[in-house]
């Protein structure tokens, strides 16, 4: 572990934020129409809440990517999520913002409340959220242990 970098204070929050963002999709399993209406109107309306949420997401993704690059050669396994997940999220935010036609069609299919794959799709996101949140908790523990071992 000597050649590994430290766990930065923002890392648990990256995973916990995205974990909660995905876990909230339980709402979609309980109330398909309400969930789909909320998110579709948020993405189409692009009001202040949209920009605050998207700004937070983008800032956390960029922070993770910067940490990955800063610690190249000394990264932990979870930092690969910053490159692949963060890169995907930044692309997703861009595609939604510029209203990329193919992305609009994909989102329309994802939010089709009559789709037979609805529970599998959103259940997968919820599972991803649980894993992400769990990684965030484990990083808090790891960070506390590292600090305790230093002094």
Compact summary:
The protein is mainly α. It is built from seven helices and no strands.
Structure, explained:
The protein is mainly α and 151 residues long. It has helices at 10-23, 26-30, 32-45, 48-70, 80-97, 101-110, 118-150. Helix 1 (10-23) packs across helix 4. The chain starts with 9 loop residues before the first helix and ends with a helix. The mean pLDDT is 94.
What descriptive keywords fit this protein?
single chain; mainly alpha; 151 residues; 7 helices; 77% helix; 0% strand
Write the layout of secondary structure elements.
Blueprint: H1 10-23, H2 26-30, H3 32-45, H4 48-70, H5 80-97, H6 101-110, H7 118-150
**Annotation, overall tally of beta strands:** 0
- Residue fraction in strands: under 5%
- The oligomeric state is single chain
Instruction: Please report the number of helical segments.
Output: 7
Spans of at least 5 consecutive residues whose pLDDT stays below 50 are none
Helix content: over 70%
Give a quick account of the main beta sheet: strands, pairing sense, barrel closure.
none
SSE order, one letter for each helix or strand:
HHHHHHH
Shape: elongated
Structural class: mainly alpha
| Rg estimate, integer Å | 17 Å
Rounded to the nearest angstrom, the distance between the terminal CA atoms is 17 Å
What's the overall average pLDDT, rounded?
94
